[in-house]
Amino acid sequence: MRYLVGTHHGEQSVFSVNGDAALNLTQAIPQVGSDLAALVATPTLAAEAARATGNTVPVADITPSLPIASPGTIICLGLNYVEHIREGGYDIPDYPALFMRGRASLMAAGAPMVRPACSETLDYEAELMVIIGQGGRHIPEDRALEHVFGYTVFNDGSVREYQRKTHQWTPGKNFDNTGAVGPCVVTPDALPEGASGLKIESRVGEEILQSSNTENMIWGVARSIAIISEYCTLAPGDHIALGTPPGVGHAKKPDPRWLRPGETVEVEIEGIGLCANPVVDEADFSKVAAE
Question: Boundaries of each Fumarylacetoacetase-like C-terminal domain copy (predicted)?
Fold first, then answer.
């Protein structure tokens, strides 16, 4: 099943998507609510939503919102593709680099990605993102995929200058409005096991920035969930981003390739969807927000 959370005629709703048409599940089943939180937490409600019928609207008429308005925990893997590790000059680790993002750093597909006033080193990172369904602790790897509600697209926008100010990556990974999520969330039954074998790509216009395949991840979805749940109790609606393939801007030769205001950066994962966001300067973003 393919879900889209977004605004249509001024109201935010949850939609099920089939091709270019979207069924408003919130109207059909009010208990669904205005984002995916209720469906994620209540499997019986999700089963009811799968049987819903009614009139549809064009997907193009829906403005995407975040799939879950207030996710509890947002955990990201770094260094999960061998060639990306090599282009960054790191040794291949035997345990994933893990960091967290705050809610203010996220924004929906289509929303502006903000280049901060303090640095021009805004980079892109195409990533597969998991939304947890059933929570738990000490989840065994062979049962971990049962804990996945769905998969979506993530652009882990990173301000490299600030990422490198400290051994901890938190500053560069948590600027407001730099992590784009969505627009669609696709349930596991519609994808290969563990969302493996999917083409993943980032672009600006005709310029291909990254192009790889999710089968190249060192730590796949099941292993990542097992590792994280060793130390962290996962809850329904938590997000896990699975790291980026090679081709990031800071590693481009002879000069880094930073995102610039006026560009639109796209991340696409086969079978899941396309997340596109215009890049804007913080001063211009703040000016529009104040109007």
Answer: 73-280
| Separation CA 82–CA 65 (nearest Å) | 33
Nearest CA to 192 out of 239, 148, 225, 135 is that of 148
182: left (phi over 0), alpha (psi -120 to 50) or beta: left
What is the residue-averaged pLDDT of the chain?
Answer: 96
Q: How far apart are CA 221 and CA 247, in angstroms?
A: 22
Which pLDDT tens digit goes with each residue over 195-205? 999 999 999 99
Residue type, 27: Q
Q: How many CA atoms lie within 13 A of 237 on its CB side?
A: 16
Rounded distance between C-alpha atoms, residue 36 and residue 6, angstroms: 11
Alpha carbon distance 98, 4 (integer Å): 28
3-state SS, 99-145, equals EECCHHHEEECCCCEEECCCCCCEECCEEEEEEECCCECCCCHHHHH
Q: Give the HSE-up count for residue 151: Cα atoms under 13 Å, Cβ half-sphere.
A: 28
Confidence of residue 290 (pLDDT cuts 50, 70, 90): low
pTM for the whole structure = 0.96
CA-closest candidate to residue 26, choices 51, 44, 65, 52: 52
Residue positions counted in the chain: 291
For the segment 121-140, what is each residue's pLDDT rounded down to a tens digit? Answer: 999 999 999 999 999 999 99
Q: Which domains occur in the chain, in start order?
A: 2-64 (no CATH), 74-290 (3.90.850.10)
7 burial level (CB within 10 Å; 0-12, 13-18, 19+): middle
